[in-house]
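User: Sequence for Probable periplasmic serine endoprotease DegP-like below. Tokens please.
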Amino acid sequence: MMMASPATAPASAETQQGPASVADLAEGLLDAVVNISTSQSVGGGSVAPPRMQAPDGSPFQDFFDEFFKDRDGDGQRNRKVSSLGSGFVIDAKNGVIVTNNHVIDGADDIEVIFADGSKLKAELVGADPKTDLAVLKVTPVKPLTEVPFGDSDDMRIGDWVMAIGNPFGLGGTVTVGIISARGRDINSGPYDNFIQTDAAINRGNSGGPLFNMNGEVIGINTAIISPSGGSIGIGFAVPTELAVNVINQLKEFGETRRGWLGVRIQPVTDEIAESLGMDKAMGALVAGIIRGGPVDDGSIEPGDVITRFDGKDVDTMRDLPRVVAESPVGKAVDVTVIRKGEEQTVKVTLGRLEDSDQLASAEDPDKTGSEPAPTQKDVMVLGMSLAELTTDNRRDFGIADEVEGVLISEVDPDSAAADKRIDAGDVIVEIAQEEVATPADVEKRIAALKQDGRRNALLMLSGKTGELRFVTVRMD
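Assistant: Structure tokens for Probable periplasmic serine endoprotease DegP-like:
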């Protein structure tokens, strides 16, 4: 009995048809996706000849004026720089369009090009560099097509997605892929929480939509990783869970109005978790309170570990800035902290981040230059020479009067303390969330931790002007 070879066996209907088509889905969405064309005048290049001035009444003066109109006052030739990106309509009636901030940043002119080739001038409603989002507005001359936002929280790794945009100036390009990962931090901003996709995204796709299979926007395509400049299947989109709130604020106010807690934070490492008696590393360690900020009333203290904010878990340090920023200014929220080994919930009222950027920024203590010789030595603990703070050594080390604790006058360069970049002139304020005032207090606290079986000591250190930070030092 003869058997048909694989080469001659009839193909099934499913094999003949191939994968399910997305043509119908794409057809309904293409008209809502636009190209964004911008131009910007920049100086530079060669120096133009000296400006010519014709005699009064000369017929050549108009010629000279026209020739020199593109030169600035220093004789530099001005040139127009153009760029292309993508965007999408979210409000057809009012002509509201979303794109990336970096697509329109610094532009003198913004033009929106629709799928049918028509063009409209656009005005900038508002932009947010921190999330790389911008909202534009055009005056429609005919009905536009809009697309709705979907819920990016519902998307799972492996779900199909579709990108439409303007790669390399080629408008109306459709690509399909899957969600490769979620919650990506690519160090582009303080609120990184990107969707990663292998749908082909190239230069010019920036600001375009990433759709789910229901035709809803679940991300705004923003960045790629590519050594060559072309797609290698690693693209990133701002999820709608982050974008929608920002876009609504830009539409309403022309700016963002983010919540602000007024704390400086550090990651909770395994060493810090062990030193605090925590079962695992989680949350955000409060390293300092911004003076004049929302929690400068003692409701939250340095050394607290924030594990939950307004009903949302804070698994890592980078979760906290995002959930706080997404909260309304003036809202009273519950914050769960671990303080001295016990879980507590405190009520705080949020301030506004944009009004407090200068206060919220904290510079590290100046540790440059050589330190003066210590005026007093008491005891050596964990490779650190400790002394009580006096008027003389405050002056010698430049320590502010409001700083209280135990002075570190010298650090053994071969010690664990030196490995953690603890320097002479630092001041120990607390050990394992208990205040210390003398070198003897430090000795007793370290001995107690060793007796409890702890391997690390959590030190709250103050810089010369009062900036706080936490450091763990091995005790074995």
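The chain has three domains: 22-44+69-256, 259-360, 379-474.
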